[in-house]
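<instruction>
Derive structure tokens from the sequence

<record> Sequence and structure tokens follow
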Amino acid sequence: MVQRMRLGLFVAMVLMMGQHLAAQGFGTVFRAGLNVSTLDGSVLMNADGTPAEAFGTSTGFHIGAGARYKFDYSGNYGVSLEFLYSLKGGLVDYNGDSWFIFRNAQGSNIRSVGMRRKAIDISTSYLEFPLHFFAKVGKFEFMGGGYMGIRLRAIANGDFTYTSTSPNPIDFTIELDQHFTRDRVPDFSQPFDTEDLLTIPVAGELFQMPRRQGAYFEHDDYRGSFIRPFDFGLTGGISYYLTEGLFLSARIQYGLTDITRNDMHLNVQQLGPNNERLFRDEVHTNIVYQVCIGFAF
């Protein structure tokens, strides 16, 4: 009899807890949509005070799911933790004074001073974990919180043109195919593993280089990926519920951490007194605008 009473009491408690949790609203959310992203940070300036560098936007997407918990019985307040795959990046253009060091297998290193025109489209993919607090007012839901991103891939494509009259007229263009986590500094003492080469005469010597270059072809050594492995920041937005579960959403991510490694970020305007490479001690962050459609239940 006592055991039956205990069992009945336990079942009643479980049922009450289940009703309580259901009322408070454990649920799930699914979303997919568009990213419009750019980089934010300092830019190099020309000698006349005009910007030599500019950032532009690129498009990507995000998709994922999450769990949410509503604090109140009406379901108007709660917290949401999501798991997203997110593709973002940005355009980077440079047009200004610069340098180039020509190297060959015989050990020659000749510095040239000229003009550089470089345009690349950086694409980064992340596993992201946005944590939001939300409040629902009618059909609108407002959210705010933060996110952490783990970099999966970081690449860039574009082109690079260099012109100079010193030490003799020079004009060449190369294609950029950069894999920041995979590429390494080329070994100029060994033959290149491609037959698609540029041959450039400089100061009476011939220098060869591939027409397609990786991320670190102008570096002396490799100190780690130019794009760092983590991204942290703030996020917020608003959703409009078309039905009880279907919504449209607009959000913004504002990065707070430098996603670039300063000791791999070349200063393309200046060299040191002994022609050593200089690096940029600056902060560059992600800014992402998102629109999506989703379901919450």
